[in-house]
Write a structure and sequence with these properties.
This protein is about 45% helix and about 15% strand. By secondary structure, the chain is an alpha+beta fold. It has a 5-stranded mixed β-barrel.
Length: about 425
């Protein structure tokens, strides 16, 4: 860092939060006695003072290690004592200074400061002017977008500002994080500082553009929703005039009655009633209401308590298998054996029968014969060409057009909760990515 200027000894005014820049005239309130004494000492002398920010704002009596190294040298322009005991001071910053040493005795906040001569840096003046102009124009655009409230006179003052000071003037007018402002204050080279401020402005502009885009999308979406609501209202009025309007309350009451009649398991009934309660609060024509209504229709249409009685007559089963199929002795023997075990256990839970063979040998008809022998309903699920497992187990209700999986659909189609289910063409399943 160039050090052509002589160090000076001046009173110290530590700031808790605010960061002051050279060229800025700022008012601030002082409440600590040591800071008031520093102002009095400055007024008694040439009004010179060193303003520097604390690293931690909560520190009440800051020591040298509690202060940032770079602050601002300047003058106290005015001091006003308020009735509540605090002091309002007006400070004008002149140049950056580096804290060298402190003398923080009671009623004597004095520091030795090395003034920074920014003109001593090796600077490309043409590039400095170009950067200053770019910062000036970008900041004006930022102000025009309404993100910074600034008077026309304050904005016009930037046009005559020196290229060395334009970055400090702009940063002092922006709302930036404390750490970011301190970092820019500690950047002593004016050309480097202008480049950094230019990047900050570009980032701020990108954030503003993103916010505007999100607001526009939200407004457009809101407009679409209002348009849809208006058209739905018009449709309801037309249907009412034509006598085609169903009473929503009657429809919901009907769904409630179907829930009672469905004889669902307790946990399913609780869920169904909860969804029905939500549906009563929704607009009948909303897309969410359609999703909930479809869900309830599936719940009420499932054969929760419809169950066929099993017939474990092995002679009858063997007779049916012989009637429907010629040959296949080993296959029929295995099926009868399976039914025999089931008749002894009183239930069919156990290994799943897997029938393999080329097309046309009777796999599907064997399954139908087993269903006929047991007195159960029969349903077939074909998995040929299925690419997504959701087609089998069902989709999440949040998806548009979500449907239960093939297994649930088949149970509904069978109209009983214990059908013989043939899952066909397993070998033709596609493996998705």
């Amino acid at each position: 860092m160039p050090q052509q200027l002589k160090p000076v000894i001046v009173p110290l005014l530590p700031m808790r939060e605010e960061i002051v820049f050279p060229g800025a005239t700022v008012p601030f309130f002082v409440g600590r006695q040591a800071s008031m004494d520093a102002l009095d000492r400055a007024l008694a002398g040439d009004r010179g003072i060193f303003v520097v920010t604390q690293r931690e704002s909560a520190v009440e009596n800051p020591q040298e290690s509690d202060l940032f190294e770079i602050g601002v040298l300047g003058r106290v322009l005015q001091v006003m004592r308020l009735p509540n005991g605090t002091v309002k001071a007006l400070f004008e910053g002149s140049r950056r200074g580096k804290l060298l040493a402190t003398k923080l005795a009671e009623k004597e906040y004095l520091v030795q400061v090395q003034p920074v001569d920014e003109s001593a840096f090796d600077i490309d003046q043409q590039k400095l002017k170009e950067l200053a102009e770019a910062v000036r124009e970008l900041f004006k655009n930022h102000v025009k977008q309404g993100k910074i409230k600034l008077s026309k006179d304050a904005l016009a003052s930037l046009d005559g500002a020196d290229a060395m000071l334009i970055s400090d003037r702009v940063v002092s007018l922006m709302e930036l994080p404390r750490e970011q402002k301190q970092k820019l204050l500690e950047t002593l080279n004016p050309e480097t500082r202008l480049q950094q401020v230019l990047e900050v402005l570009k980032d701020e502009m990108e954030i503003v553009q993103l916010e505007d885009k999100l607001k526009k999308e939200a407004t457009d979406q809101f407009s679409d929703t209002k348009k849809e609501d208006f058209l739905q209202d018009q449709l309801r009025n037309i249907q009412k005039e034509l006598g085609q309007m169903d009473d929503p309350k009657a429809e919901l009451d009907e769904i409630g009655e179907l829930i009672k009649q469905a004889e669902m398991p307790e946990e399913v009934e609780i869920e169904a009633k909860k969804e029905l309660k939500k549906l009563r609060l929704m607009s009948p024509m909303s897309s969410e209401a359609n999703v909930v209504r479809n869900y309830l229709e599936w719940l009420t249409s499932m054969p929760w308590k419809v169950r066929t009685e099993d017939n474990f007559d092995l002679l009858q089963a063997e007779k049916i298998l012989d009637e429907d199929h010629y040959g296949l002795e080993k296959v029929k023997e295995r099926i009868v054996e399976y039914l025999a075990v089931a008749s002894l256990k009183g239930k069919l839970k156990g290994p799943i029968l897997c029938l393999t063979g080329p097309p046309g040998v009777g796999k599907t008809s064997l399954a139908k014969s087993v269903a006929r022998a047991l007195g159960r309903n029969f349903v077939r699920i074909s998995l040929g060409g299925v690419r997504d497992e959701a087609e089998i187990r069902g989709h999440r209700r949040t998806y548009i057009g979500a449907m239960p999986g093939k297994i649930i659909q088949s149970i509904k189609k069978a109209k009983s909760n214990n059908p013989v289910m043939l899952i066909d063409e397993i070998d033709k399943l596609y493996q998705s990515n």
